[in-house]
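Sanity check record (used in CI):
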Amino acid sequence: MLTASLFAQAIGTTSRGSAGRTRGDATASSEELAAILACERISGKPYRALLDNEWTSFGHEQEPMAKIEYLERTGIATDDAGLILTDDRKFGYSTDGEAEDRHGLGLVEVKSLASARRIAEFLCAPDKREWAMGQFKPQCKGGLWLTNRAWLDLIVWIPSMESVNKHFWSWRIWRDDDELEQMEEQLWRFMRRVDGLEAIFRAPPLQDELISLGLPPAIRHGAPTEQPELVAAQAATTTELPLSLF
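Expected output for YqaJ viral recombinase family protein:
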């Protein structure tokens, strides 16, 4: 399952050619994520738990305070909600809060900044809204897509800046069905890459690979020299597996 917090990584493409890539190719980060999802499908284990860190815990801890500040500033209360999944369970979104105002049903997404580097990037940005959209809009659009809500209020929360009144920033993102349709196409393109990798990972070893594995002749005997399903899977994806995964 791909959650909305990873949509930006999944659909990321290169803006210019470099390191054997041409403009518009999937980024190395996107390719790595595709491999991680393929590994998860096969192992049945949450491979991405390795990606969790102290900043994730910090965000969970700070979320209630950010929503209290949001209520005080806007008068809009938020309700907790669980994980929302597509019927095929391929995509999911966990909102930080459901809300409602005169414009209809909406969502709240809180992004807590803790690292000095991220705080500096944001506060020094000439256009803070543009910075926030560049970092978080794909996830927000994913929430609007999966929940069918009309709007989402994105909150950038920096508790360490409260003494200078720069701890709370918020912008509203309106639903744009054309944007969501384009994003959905990009996500399905990514999922096809995951499918291709999964097929390669699951395919039986070739004859020379069996020899490399050191299997006894009795097991190697009669192993196929070519496998149409593997060839087809390899043709379906041009993903180059990052060595860091292994």
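Residues 220-226, 233-246 have pLDDT under 50 and may be disordered. If this sentence no longer matches the regenerated tokens, the check is flagged for review.
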